[in-house]
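ugh ok so i messed up the first submission bc i forgot one of the chains. this is the corrected input, ALL of the components this time, i swear. 897 residues overall. if the numbers dont match what u have on ur side tell me asap before i send this to the collaborators (the ones from the other lab, u know who)
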Amino acid sequence: MVKLTINGETRTLDVPDEMPLLWALRNELGMVGTKFGCGIGACGACTVHVDGVATRSCSAPVGTLAGKQISTIEHLGQTPLGKALQKAWLDVDVMQCGYCQAGQLMSASALLAKNPNPSQQEVDGAMQGNICRCACYGRIREAIQIAAREGATANV
Amino acid sequence: MSDLAGTMQLSRRTLLRASVLAGGGLMLSATIPGIARAAAGSAKAAPLNAFVTIAPDGAITIVGKNPEIGQGIKTMLPMLIAEELDADWDKVRIVQGDSDAKKYGPQMAGGSFATPMNWMPMRQVGAAGRAMLVEAAARRWSVPAASLTTSKGVVTNPANGKTLTYGELATDAAASAVPDPNKVKLKDDKDFVIIGRKIGGIDSPKVVHGEPIFGVDTKLPGMVYAAYERSPVFGAKYVSANLAAAKAEPGIIDVFAIPGSGGHDELVDGVAVISHNWWLANKARSKLAVQWDNGEWGTHSTRGYDEQARAFMASGKPAESLNKKGDTDAAFASAAKVVDAQYHYPFLAHVPMEPMNCTAQWHSKTGTMELWAPTQIPNGGQQTVAKMLGVPEDKVIVHITRSGGGFGRRLVNDFMHQAAAVAQKMPDTPVQLIWSREDDVRSDHYRPAGWHRLRAALDDKGKLVGIEDHFVTFDISGGFNPATMPKDHFPANFVPNVSYGQTKLKTAVPMGALRAPTSNALSYVFQSFLDEVAHEAGTDLPTLLLTLIEGAEADPPQNGPFGKQAGFDPTRMRSVIKKAVAMSNWGHAKLPEGHALGFGYYYSHLGHFAEVAEVSIARTGTVSVHNVWIAGDVGSHIINPFGALNQVQGAAIDGIGQALSLAVELDKGAVVNSNFHNYPVPRMPVIPAIHVEFVPSDNSPTGLGEPALPPIIPAVTNAVFAATGKRIRSLPIDKKLLATV
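and heres the new structure output, hopefully the right one now
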């Protein structure tokens, strides 16, 4: 039995310790917002937050996550920063297919939580683990900068 | 009006029917035999129903009939209907139609066809609906319909200011005479309020909240998951496997072998592993120890193909002729200069972000297969799955889900066949079959590799008087063959002496359409080679191109996949070339030290694109693309500027990835690459600034999924030559060739 704290709720799962969080979320808990892209932590589609840090859930065994705070795309809109990012994403019309965007948003929110005013280089550095096969990268950059600006205004 | 728009309008005798919905309201269905004919290949009309439903409260529901793969079609087609309907876009709801070619006509995401196919018919559907609503208002007020105006879902009588909403009129409107859609008045362009507006993707709000909208998000009660083991070697046959060992693994429900049928495009031999959790199913594959019979295919490799191709090119004798014009022997014998170069491009994979998957349920009582499929060609999948199962087509139900990218990969429905074959073995249990990324990279239908030996003859004035191409390609067959080239490929029609020929290699590697198929390869080859010719002639590529087409007239309209379509038009080519030259300050640009510009032009999918890339090369040989200038002519309107720009930006980056880093390698009959670490698609840090301008023309709008991609590749390779003096005759660019340390 594995006990996980996901989006503030405690969930108990009867799965092997080595099962990646991604497949516990998707197939055991029915939380399919977190996406499967590569299975080796190379594309970022499965990004979640573990204690606030952007983490590839396809490569995070559930046995290593007891006592940690896990947060997923389904919870993103619960925070002001998450809301600002979601709004910027829609205002810029970031996406084409949209499949990678949950991961992009989770990486972006982890970045802005830590660094509210990143340079373009810092954005690129934090986001380079997230592939967008449709290559909406310019718009992702722009949306992150907009959310950062709005965050800065909100804090004044 | 252009020929294209005119002929398309005339060729589609659009018929509309109307009926009253059970709960009141208007339902419009359109029959557009022109479109049905294109798919069925016969003159017999099949009904196409572009459903427009107006509820009494004014809510308008429009069916998006085509698969959404990120190209924005689920938003764009309904925009066309809503525009002419004069609907309030904020009250429009869009629902995805299931696969039903009889009801909707062909439903396909491919070839950038959706825009030219639907530009007129969808508008006519909307305009006819508007006419019926106006007619209903005219009856109620006893005034002439022509005296009434509409806006945002409201009919107004300007004489007295009275208004009626579409919702109030919907039930009456269903009783109105159905107008001939070819006679309904369409809006003047200046009155467009939805076409040309930046409208965000209709499902984007769901995406940012992680709602379940993709194929792989499908969830059914009692659903189990399947992983599918196939041979790593293409063309191999199943012999045996340790099914019991896999079945003994934790959480495994069942393991069984499935015999293939219909080849790579349908069902290959394999072993299905079933679990309540896909990760457990996929993990248990390692215990299968499948024995495969590789037959003759286990020795094939990209190196072997390359050696064969180079031997054929060296022989100078293509096995078959594609195009012979004038006298190339004489042209080369008397040439002042001959340019002779061999070009090569590799196999490429599609790697859309959502791995192949399909959910299937075999309903044993009714003998019906129900599928939830992220596919680009649901109608085709419905047909071939029915054939495989031996059931009538109406016993295969295909729900079209959103696809996490396509790029042509989902034009082949092998994953649907696998899911259906597995589900049939587990009656009444819903099964979701998912491929791993490794499955995806190693079981793709690849962009074919290809080789070209090109020769050009220049006369003493530097004029291109002869061109030869020996194309070495693969012997493959199928409905769409991506390993071909058009026999009149540019510049054949603009050079007096031409000899194009080809030789084919034998292979079992499955091949398919990758975004801008054939064009993505041929643009690189021909535009790079013409850059060489221009250099030898003492000019530059845009000047050479403009010289070649000087005085040329447009080709007449031709029969295409959706009826008459515009022929190649040198005037449009000239416009985009001049635009890209101006945008990039070509020839006069002040660039940072070590930077250089390269040019590329291509015409594909009815779109003309001229592109300029600015590059620099690090001492390690790494190429950086700093700026890209893109001028495109895709017709009279940019229907949704949001989506349009996104497609062009994405296509440019996609092409840059092909130029800089992508190749699929084969060894011992199997693909060596496995995942994103060794198939490195572009990431954020490498993207350039992309400057896009659309050059409007009086042609009917065409699609943007593809035509912006081909010219960027030669723009980059030609820029590398301008920066280094080194020609890039093989893709992806070999850093070692450019390294100076």
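quick check: The longest strand of chain A covers residues 2-6. that seems consistent at least. The mean pLDDT of chain A is 96.
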